């Protein structure tokens, strides 16, 4: 059975009865809006939902490598999994050109609409803010700088330097070491239940950003906080 979690209508105390000193934000889909990538697949002659299939597949393979004791950069897995997916379809251009067309779409992504205002509100709290991504820090830097919100983050971290993808506990431990924070004083913020679950199992608290009113899987440890936006999260942390 799930533990009770905080929502805007029914706040509960965080474990440890203290507000986190450090918020660790996931990047892909939590801050960045990946929806425009669907149009890139349509331009290749594939259905828009192919973007979700591809992204889920690349996460699966990244997780699988970590589980097997191996690791590979996000960009490498993303590009190669695209070759596998696109290679099974009739394309309107060459395979490598098609792969590049999708991969270049990352540079054009923006943040979700609630992110700028949410981060501005968060700046009013006495809390440190960093990112921890399964992708590269360069992509996070470009995304956040283009959105005008880079200054809200103390530092940008990547699992590439941890040697293990989230949700492996080593990835969260790496972020805690870099920030010199105890796990009880850190909260992972993500849209992915597998990420909030991983953080909980690593000793951190977690916040699930549920923008789509989805059901949280019962087999994962419940997040300490559920919010429909970063703005709502900040309201619950006050």
How would you portray this structure in words?
- The chain has helices at residues 37-42, 50-67, 74-86, 95-103, 115-122, 137-146, 169-179, 193-201, 230-237, and strands at 22-25, 128-133, 155-158, 186-190, 205-209, 225-227.
- By secondary structure, the protein is an alpha/beta fold.
- It folds into 2 domains: 22-33 and 110-237, HAD superfamily/HAD-like (Rossmann fold), CATH 3.40.50.1000; 37-108, DNA polymerase, domain 1, CATH 1.10.150.
- It has a 6-stranded parallel beta sheet with strand order 3-2-1-4-5-6, sandwiched between helices.
- Helix 5 packs parallel to helix 9.
- The protein is globular, with a radius of gyration of 18 Å.
- The two termini are 27 Å apart.
- The model is unreliable at 6-13 (pLDDT under 50).
Please state the average pLDDT score.
93
CATH architectural designation of the largest domain: 3-Layer(aba) Sandwich
- The helix content, as a percent range, equals 25-40%
CATH topology assignment of the largest domain: Rossmann fold
Order of helices and strands: EHHHHHEHEHEHEEH
Supply the CATH superfamily name of the largest domain.
HAD superfamily/HAD-like
- What distance lies between the first and last C-alpha atoms, to the nearest angstrom? 27 Å
The number of helical segments is 9
Structural class: alpha/beta
Structure summarized in a few sentences:
The protein is α/β, with parallel strands linked by helices.
Descriptive terms for the model:
DNA polymerase, domain 1; 6-stranded parallel beta sheet; 6 strands; alpha/beta; Rossmann fold; 2 domains; 238 residues
